[in-house]
Amino acid sequence: MASEAEYSEFEEKVKRTVYLDNLSPQITESIVNKSVSQFRIVKNVQFIPNYLEKNIPLSRKPKQADAVVSEISHKPFMVGGMPRPVRAHEAKPEMFEDRPAKPGREIQFLWVDKKDPDFEVANRLKQLAKDHALEVDIVLNQQVKVEEKLAERQQLALKVNHEKFEMINGVITDGTAKCLANRYHIRVADHW
Fold this sequence. Notes:
CATH architecture of the largest domain: 2-Layer Sandwich
Oligomer: single chain
Number of domains: 2
Order of helices and strands: HEHEEHEEEHH
């Protein structure tokens, strides 16, 4: 059983925590750390062990956690130089594996006999959990495919923009821009 002080310390930890979801399954702790660091100092990043691969970055102070939630809601969350549709929420105690038992609360469990009417309910819940795991696996595989297509499009856009920059830079450095400026009587800066 946890003491009042231990549970109070845990509640403070929850207040300092920001919960991020809608992240790519390919995201890493370092990417989340760098991305959230644009808003506030990050103490650490921890993945919640569940089927949806969501993250919890921890902040140093409760007010910082509130600020991160607010800022991510109003500004784009940048990953690899590209905005991502990430959502930020305040963390809940249920998200932590290491949460202590609430003082004064007692949890009881028992094995359900096959003849018990609750046995069928338990079996349906067990099957429902298996179905959800399968559905989540399918959704995550589809999300990975979408992320890969997005990465390809972003890479292509980056390549096209780089080629445009190189073309403009070439026009400037080879004297074509200066020649056109003289032809059309446009005053240009001396650095050309």
